[in-house]
């Protein structure tokens, strides 16, 4: 028997009419010390007075689920404890018409003891609360809510679990067989699809190249039909520019024309070019510069060619 005292634990070994006790065992080492003294695989945990709190809930017997819901409400409203820090427990009672009380045990008090016992290979069987008029045993539902070690499966439950495992294994084997046959068929189909995809890809590449060639020819044809001939642009420039202007650089890129040169009066060229029906938006691309030692001015002009 493991008794949880105020500051430590008491380990008691009973053999017939004799008993042996060990006091002052720390909570985190109770499992190790109990295994050394008793060499037992099971034990009973007792919680002494002062290590738990008892609260009255109802003057009549309540079902466990309903009682726990009411206890959580009472805990949050009537105590300073947090529901996550304590275990809400109920005791076994044979009086179906009696009142309902619940008990609070701090998790920091009971959990380390149970964990230490489980780590040492000792399985707690029950938890008793020491009271002035005797010992109160926690109900099975309360024990299960305190720690998973108290969850015990009955033979019908074990048989049900075994049956479910067999059904799952049978399903896995059946699925594996079906999947194996499906994988073989899928592999064969994938090989055939791969061959067809390669052939289709070659045809697609050929069609894409043909479409690109057709598009290039069509674009060249449209560009040629829409573009203003260079000869026409040159003829227009030589026609409208005065004899005092000379062109030294000429560039025609689609509808954009730029040229540079020298003229006696470069400022007058803009109005001349703007008056031509073939040109639009003429402007200097850089300041007009008079070259020392020469009679003319250096200029650079850009404009747009109007398609007719």
Q: Tell me the strand order in the biggest sheet.
A: 3-2-1-4-8-9
Strands, total number: 14
Helix count equals: 7
* CATH fold type of the largest domain: Nucleotidyltransferase, domain 5
Shape: elongated
Mean pLDDT: 84
Tally of discrete structural domains: 2
What is the rounded Rg? Answer: 50 Å
Structural class, by secondary structure, is: alpha+beta
How widely separated are the two ends? 112 Å
Give the biggest beta sheet. 6 strands, mixed
CATH architecture of the largest domain: 2-Layer Sandwich
Unreliable runs, pLDDT <50, ≥5 residues?
A: none
Which CATH first-tier class of the largest domain would you pick?
Alpha Beta
Strand content: 25-35%
Helix content: 40-55%
The string of secondary-structure elements, in order, is EEEHEEHEEHEEHHHEEHEEE
Keywords: Membrane, Transmembrane, Transmembrane helix
InterPro entries: Extracell_DNA_Util/SecSys_Comp (IPR052534), PilN (IPR007813)
Pfam families: PilN
Protein name: General secretion pathway protein L
Description:
With 308 residues, this protein is of the alpha+beta class. It has two domains: 2-152, Nucleotidyltransferase, domain 5 (2-Layer Sandwich), CATH 3.30.420; 230-305, General secretion pathway protein M, EpsM (Gyrase A, domain 2, 2-Layer Sandwich), CATH 3.30.1360.100. The chain is built from seven helices and 14 strands. The protein has helices at 30-38, 64-78, 107-119, 140-146, 155-226, 230-240, 269-275, and strands spanning 2-4, 9-15, 18-25, 42-47, 53-58, 86-89, 100-106, 123-131, 134-137, 245-253, 256-263, 279-284, 289-290, 297-305. The strands form three sheets. A six-stranded mixed β-sheet has the order 3-2-1-4-8-9, with helices on one face. Strands 10, 11, 12, 13 and 14 form a five-stranded antiparallel β-sheet that branches. Helix 1 (30-38) crosses helix 3. The mean pLDDT is 84.
